[in-house]
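Hi support team,

I've been running sequence recovery on a batch of backbones for a student project. Most finish fine, but this one hangs at about 90% for roughly twenty minutes before it completes. I'm not sure whether the input is malformed or the queue is just slow. I've pasted the structure tokens below so you can try to reproduce it. Let me know if you need the job ID as well.

Thanks,
M.K.
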């Protein structure tokens, strides 16, 4: 299995746990405070920033509720 396949599978795990812990929103970005558009709300041709899950302690093995935070994909990659 390639690294990107593992990364995508792991990313889906973060999202599943995040939504299980927090419900379906709405959510505000932990970095900028703006509302986050959820994946199912984004139009295919939209340039809207999508939800990303930030690990507060930077430890991607730590998937506790307190460690998984909502952020925009653009804010998360800065």
């Amino acid at each position: 299995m390639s690294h990107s396949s593992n990364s995508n599978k792991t990313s889906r795990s973060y999202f599943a746990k995040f939504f299980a812990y927090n419900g379906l929103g709405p959510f505000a970005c932990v970095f900028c405070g703006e509302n986050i558009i959820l994946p199912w709300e984004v139009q295919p041709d939209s340039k809207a920033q999508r939800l990303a899950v930030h690990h507060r302690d930077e430890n991607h093995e730590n998937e506790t509720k307190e460690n998984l935070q909502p952020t925009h994909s653009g804010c998360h990659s800065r």
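--
Follow-up from support: It reproduced on our side and the slowdown came from queue contention, not your input. The radius of gyration is 13 Å. No action needed from you.
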